[in-house]
Amino acid sequence: MIYDAVIVGAGPNGLAAAITLARAGKSVLVLEAKETIGGGTRSAELTLPGFVHDICSALHPLGVASPFFRDLPLAHYGLEWVFPPASLAHPLDDDTAVLVEGSVDATAANLGPDAARYRRLMGPLVAGWQGLLGDLLGPLRIPRHPMVMARFGLAALLPAATLARLAFRGDRARAVFAGMASHAMMPLSTPATAAFGLVLGLVAHAVGWPIARGGSQRIADALGAHLRSLRGEIVTGHPVRSRADLPDARAILFDTSPRQLVQVVGKELPAGYRQALSRFRYGPGVFKADYALDGPIPWRAEECLRAGTVHLGGTLEEIAAAEAAIWRGEHPEWPFVLVAQQSLFDPARAPQSRHTAWAYCHVPHGSAEDVTGRLEAQIERFAPGFQDRILARRTHTAADMEVYNPNYIGGDINAGVQDLRQLFTRPVVRLNPYTTPVRGLYLCSSSTPPGGGVHGLCGYYAGRTALQRLR
Ligand SMILES: Cc1cc2nc3c(=O)[nH]c(=O)nc-3n(C[C@H](O)[C@H](O)[C@H](O)COP(=O)(O)OP(=O)(O)OC[C@H]3O[C@@H](n4cnc5c(N)ncnc54)[C@H](O)[C@@H]3O)c2cc1C
User: Fold this and answer.
1) Which helix (H) or strand (E) holds 438?
2) Hey, is 235 helix, strand or coil?
């Protein structure tokens, strides 16, 4: 049999590409190297029996906002988003925390002298969020909503530290904005890092930052079940190392990094394209820690218990210094740490009265250093007694992350730096970045626009491209 399309990799983007093609009636086969589907959206009992941990993604602002996911019957296939009362808490050394609530006004009320400024910055963006995200989360094109895009672009193109200092006067607003912008995994002095803070802030207000009930694996399982209902096939335990591992197909889509594309079909690619791919830049890595706890995290600022995500790093200046150090190849003494506390809102993640915690911090590209001590010192700073609650922990260095999933080169969870040069033109500058110069070969992973995160949009746009050429 000749398939219309074979997809290499069952991450959210591979599954999204497969669904896009199968919905149009095409015959589709997904080949996944591991024994389970999901890529960066898997869960497992990593520590003790009964404790379900999200191995990679935990928080899904982009998943719930994704126009593609919103269009799929994922709830029918068991996906339920759980929305903590507040998306984010950012504790400070005065034993208080800034909470990013659903309402812009309620959040602004937390920001003292910056309340009105916060409302002026976020209010208009939140009002036009659907159009704005529709324009932003995809390949470069003429915006359909130019007014809101222009308003966003003026602020978004600035370095996050500059926007935080221009827009706000107080430490609280500056700190919470710096934490959100640090998801960029770039120094906060880099142009357009403000975009990450603005997008994550506006999604917190527009829809929230949910977790998936039962674990992030449920996202992959729902995508997989929907694909099978469309007669798509999935084969696990099937690593694709060369052409010989691929059945005949009219289109092949790689949910992999460009590096693996070259490993598998490099001989077929023109030398110029291969060279362009080799210039694609990968960013810093993450050091990941999962915890089984005998109680909730003992935050000094108790209001942190209302949030699914907690950002630890203190002030704008401290966070900016930590992120800059990583790009110099250093492991900062006080890294910026992201914490998720899923079991507070999804009790089935842990045995009764026990809890899970998920945390990571940024580290230099390829780092094999165990920074458990620094990461936990940052948690202890805001939650003294945290270490006494640990029943078991499991850690992964950035180098381990690449072994776990070869898409995370050097531990880079976005599969490529997401700066202005690479955000819309990833992995190379081409009219259609999902295509390669070889007819029938495509990339559909987060190394294509709009980049990292569990949203399926790279796969959706790649699938649409392949579909147009299959007709
Ligand atoms: C620690 C961590 C935390 C994260 N947190 C979040 C978060 O909270 N929210 C969020 O939205 N995103 C988060 N992410 C990022 C998110 O997981 C990724 O951006 C997303 O999974 C990318 O999807 P993808 O389909 O492009 O690739 P992947 O999810 O990486 O999937 C690729 C798949 O292809 C398979 N594969 C690779 N090579 C081959 C081969 N040769 N043959 C067969 N199969 C192959 C892999 O096994 C994998 O299953 C996090 C990532 C990590 C690592």
Assistant:
1) none
2) strand
Chain Cα centroid distance, residue 74: 19
- Alpha-carbon span 32 to 7, nearest angstrom: 9
Ligand 1: centre distance to CA 446 (Å)? 8
Q: Two tokens at 40?
A: 């960066």
* Cα 10 to ligand 1 centre (Å): 9
Give kind and range of the element (H or E) at residue 417. none
Q: What is the pLDDT of residues 53-110, one digit of tens each?
A: 999 999 999 999 999 999 999 999 999 999 999 999 999 999 999 999 999 999 999 9
Residue ID of nearest Cα to ligand 1 atom 41: 240
Euclidean distance between CA atoms 62 and 79, whole angstroms: 15
Q: What does the angle CA 29 – CA 249 – CA 277 come to, to the nearest 5 degrees?
A: 95
Q: At what angle do helices 171-181 and 194-206 cross, to 10 degrees?
A: 100
Please name the residue whose Cα sits nearest to atom 50 of ligand 1. 57
pLDDT for the residue numbered 416: 96
Residue with tokens 């798509």: 232
In this prediction, residues 18-43 reach a mean pLDDT of 98
Could you give the angle at the alpha carbon of 288 between the alpha carbons of 287 and 290, nearest 5°? 155
Burial of 471 (C-beta count, 10 Å sphere; 0-12/13-18/19+): exposed
Enumerate the β-bridge partners of residue 88. Answer: 100, 309
Residues recorded for the chain: 471
Most ligand 1 atoms within 8 A of CB, residue of 262, 310, 407 to mutate = 407
**b (16+ CB within 10 A) / e for 123-162:** eebbebbebbbebbbbbeeebebeebbebbbebbebbbbe
* Ligand 1 cavity residues, CB under 6 Å: 8-14, 31-34, 39-41, 56-60, 62, 239-240, 255-256, 260, 286, 288, 360, 401, 405-408, 413, 445-446, 452-454, 458
Spatial separation of the C-alpha atoms in residues 129 and 399, rounded to whole Å: 37
**Residue 41 burial (C-beta neighbours within 10 Å; 0-12, 13-18, 19+):** buried
Are 234 and 223 in contact by the 8 Å Cβ rule? The answer is no
What are 285's strand-pairing partners? 363
